Automatic annotation (TrEMBL):
Domain DinB-like residue range list: 11-145
Species name: Solibacillus faecavium
Gene3D superfamilies: dinb family like domain (1.20.120.450)
Name under which the protein is recorded: DinB family protein
Alphabetical list of InterPro entries matching this protein: DinB-like, DinB/YfiT-like
């Protein structure tokens, strides 16, 4: 693997560990709270981070990833915890999914990072491009989780 790809996966893992560390002192009950002036809760943000990374890969490659299609109805853009059902992954399940996601992506796509596909937003046309974009996106939701914690703790 090229050095820049190793660096990319190290960054993805490091930022994901930051997100997981932020969740360490959040209880299951706290993860469900939607404070006033907020549209979502911590559990929704966790699922959205997980889903978004896979959706960008699927959009780019047209290949199916590990994200089940029903996740889009719970964690996709424009959804909220009011869309949750008894089938929606729990807080604990989402933590486990987030813990394993970067290695899963590395195992399945590390050798495909530079394959050129049709351009998507902002001229992105490789998995490498979309993974860089997902770092920014995870940072946005890291901040959302941080803000939610300030209101619930």
């Amino acid at each position: 693997m090229k050095e820049r790809h190793e660096i990319l996966f190290n960054q993805l893992k490091s930022y994901r560990n930051d997100t997981l560390s932020l969740l360490e002192d959040v209880s299951v009950e706290e993860a469900e709270i939607i404070p006033k002036r907020f549209n979502n809760n911590i559990r929704w943000n966790m699922g959205h981070i997980y889903l978004d990374q896979y959706l960008w890969i699927e959009t780019q490659t047209k290949e199916k990833t590990n994200a089940p299609s029903e996740y889009n109805s719970w964690f996709g853009y424009g959804t909220s915890p009011t869309d949750f059902t008894s089938e929606t992954p729990s807080y604990k399940e989402l933590k486990t999914l987030l813990e394993n996601q970067i290695e899963d992506i590395k195992d399945k796509f590390a050798d495909k990072l530079e394959i050129v596909h049709s351009q998507t937003d902002m001229g992105m046309n490789t998995i490498e491009h979309v993974l860089i974009r997902t770092i920014f996106h995870e940072g946005i939701h890291f901040q959302h989780i941080l803000n939610l914690k300030k209101f619930i703790k």
